[in-house]
Amino acid sequence: MQHVATDPRGEELSLAERAYRAIRDRLVMLEIRPGAPINEDQLAQSLGVGRTPVREALKRLQYERLITTYPRRGTFATDVNITDLAHISEVRQELEPLAAAQAARRATATDRVTLTAVRRELESVDSRRRDADELMRLDLHVHRAIYAATHNPYLEDTLVRHDNLATRIWCLFVERMSDMAGHVEEHGPLIEAIIAGDPDKAAQLARDHVEGFERAIRAAI
Predict the structure, then answer these.
(1) Sign (positive or negative) of CA dihedral 91, 217, 148, 198
(2) What secondary structure letter does DSSP report for 6?
(3) What span, in angstroms and rounded, lies between the C-alpha atoms of 87 and 81?
(4) Is the pLDDT of residue 4 over 70?
(5) Alpha-carbon Rg for the chain in angstroms
């Protein structure tokens, strides 16, 4: 029986959506390096899909500032510029607390089950001694679970895009950061506040987390 890819809500994903998510995360995690050329045929072959889903995915990724197309030159992974950090943080400092508060107000029983599972995963960070790549993937997973629990698709899409851009900056300086596991573990109390339905506490913890992230990146530069 063929496995059908689904999203965290259990919905079946189209080929274009599967291609988009796979290429997106390769760009976010810098598996496709900043400035590297984007080859549609190679991506299609590596993902086991046709060129059409890849082409559709690349259109979305250009809008999300993860790839750039130049006339007569081709398509490339967007460069990572530390000067973007202030702009990204400005958006996240306003919207991350809003998302955390709305998740605390609106999380369904299913959301709480998902967040509880994520909380358990966070508790095992030190014992597993995860490497940087695993920690960053866990961080992305935590943020995306919180955004989904807002049940506001516009807020979710905006924050996923900005969290992706922030993660690319993080990946660039990760070797210089001293307490990466601690940064990821900070999500534990935030998730607990959301599960407990405490929007004020969730918002404050989210704000503190974003501000701490920016300080840590700037200290690593």
Answers:
(1) negative
(2) B
(3) 11
(4) no
(5) 18
